Amino acid sequence: MPVKTEHRTLRVLLAAGLVLPALALAQGKKDEAPKKLYCWNENGQRKCADSLPPEAMAAAREEISIRSGMRTGEVQRAMTGEERAAQAEEEAKRKTEALAAETRRRTDQAMLTSFQSEDELRRVFSERINLVDNSINTARYNVTSLREGLVTLLRSAGERELAEKPVPEKLATDIRVRHAQLLYHSALQSSFERQRAELDVEIEDILQRYRQLKASDAPGARVAMDLPPKPRQ
C-alpha cells in the first residue's frame, strides 16, 4: 500500500475514533428526558419543584422547561366529589333533554299509526318519566345534605363568634363553597321539577290528540291532520 494511502486511512480512523464517542455522548443527551419544573399554589403561596410531592398530585399545576424557562404544559386540578357529582347530574340533564327530543321526534312521526291503545302510547314516555323522577330525587337529596352541612358550618362559626374567637379562614371558605353548591343544586332541582311538570303537560296534550283522532278515525280526518291513509287490515 502506498505511504500516502496509509496516512489517509490512519487519519480517517483517528477521526472516527474521536467523532463516534462524541456522537454517542450527544445521542445520550438527546435520549435523556427533558428536565422540567412543576409549579402549583399551596395555601396561597406559589411553590415549584423538579418533582411533584404526593400532596400536590391533585392540585392545578404548570410544567416549565428548566432548559428554556418556557411553560410546556398545564394540568387542571382533580375534581372534588361534589364537582364529580355535579358533572354527573349535568350529564343526566343532557341525556334527559336528548331523550326528550328523540321522543318528540318519534311521537310526531308515528304516534297515531303505531299504537293501538293509550297504554301503548304511555309506555313511550315511561323512560323519560323515570329518568326525570330519578334526577329530581337525587337533586332533592343533595339539597337536603348540603343544607344540613351548611347549617353545621354556620353553627360552628356562630359559636366561635359568640365566644369572641376568630373564625378560621378554612371554615369561612368551606361556608362560601357549601353555600354556592347549595344554590347550584337548588337551581338544578327546580330545573328538573320544571321539566317534570312540562312533561306531564306534553303527555296530556299528546293523549288528547290521540283520543281525538281515534274518535274520528275517518279518511277525511286523517287528511286534515296530514297523516298517511290507515293501512288496510
UniProtKB/TrEMBL annotation:
It comes from Pseudoxanthomonas daejeonensis. It comes from the Bacteria. This is Secreted protein. Residues 78-106 form a coiled coil. Keywords: Coiled coil, Signal. Residues 1-26 form the signal peptide.
